Amino acid sequence: VIGVTYFEPMNYLDADGKLTGFETEFAEAVCEKMGVTPKFQKIDWDSKEVELNSKTIDCIWNGMTATDELKNQINFSNAYMNNSQVAVIRKADAAKYKDLASMSGAKVVAEAGSAGEIAVKADAGLSKSYLPVKDQGTSLMEVKSKTADIAIIDAVTAAGSIGEGTDYDDLMIVDVISSADSEVYAVGIRKSDTELTAKINAAIKELYDDGTLAKLAEKYNLSGRVVAQ
């Protein structure tokens, strides 16, 4: 049972209402290697550790950053993708929000419990007027609807959600968030499930070695972010 939230390009519903995305297809491929059938379950991201440890799900596979704080609570698979945090604004505000200094005091949103929230709280200007929201998709809608000025989200999410032909073609990315630590995505697993962790790691390596992981990344506009196994 795989805990997910819905956002492009990781896990989302297509025009026919079918769950798809990079993480969805990646998880399905790993489960096929392991000889098990995946069941995807939508969760509240802010309660992901509770869901995992109460055994309502078996892993979290949703563009999750392997932070030091989370490593104390759960196991992580080997990293498979690089990530970073970016600011998303309305194109109409391009002249207004050019850097972190100009963003100080603006209405800022980020997903509760995310790496984006950590980045906001680390900056005195961004955190002046900050509101946590339930997921990254909501943060983009807040900016689009002008109830917020800036969303701090994963660069991977931004790459798959913003631009020509998307619902957010009026938004743009401003790459102003810096971090001393690199961000990587990994699968979250219960501390007690060491055997499952080992099996997932083995399957991820197989999919890296046979080129499947690179092909999936290319399909979802994430080329160049795959981490070598």
List the helices and strands and how they pair.
Elements lengths: L1 E3 L7 E2 L5 E2 L1 H13 L5 E3 L5 H6 L5 E2 L7 H4 L3 E2 L4 E3 L1 E6 L9 H4 L4 E4 L3 H7 L8 E4 L2 H9 L5 E5 H7 L9 E4 L8 E3 L2 E2 L4 H16 L2 H8 L10
Parallel strand pairs: 1-4, 1-5, 9-10, 9-11
Antiparallel strand pairs: 2-3, 5-14, 6-14, 7-13, 8-11, 8-12
Helix pairs in contact: 1-8
What's this entry about, in short?
With 229 residues, this protein is an alpha/beta fold.
Judged by helices, strands and strand pairing, the structural class is: alpha/beta
* Distance from first to last alpha carbon: 24 Å
**Helix content percent band:** 25-40%
Radius of gyration: 17 Å
Strand content: 15-25%
| Arithmetic mean of pLDDT | 93
- N-to-C SSE string, H for helix and E for strand: EEEHEHEHEEEHEHEHEHEEEHH
**Number of helices in the DSSP assignment:** 9
Task: Show unreliable segments.
Answer: none
Could you tell me the number of beta strands? 14
Major sheet summary line: 5 strands, mixed
Shape from CA axes? Answer: globular
Strand order of the largest sheet: 4-1-5-14-6
Which features would summarize this protein structure in a list?
229 residues, five-stranded mixed beta sheet, alpha/beta, 14 strands, single chain
Structural account:
By secondary structure, the chain is an alpha/beta fold. 32% of the residues lie in helices and 20% in strands. The chain has nine helices and 14 strands. The strands form four sheets. A five-stranded mixed beta sheet has the order 4-1-5-14-6. A five-stranded mixed beta sheet has the order 10-9-11-8-12. A two-stranded antiparallel ribbon has the order 2-3. Helix 1 crosses helix 8 (194-209). The longest helix has 16 residues, at 194-209. It is globular and about 50 Å long. The mean pLDDT is 93.
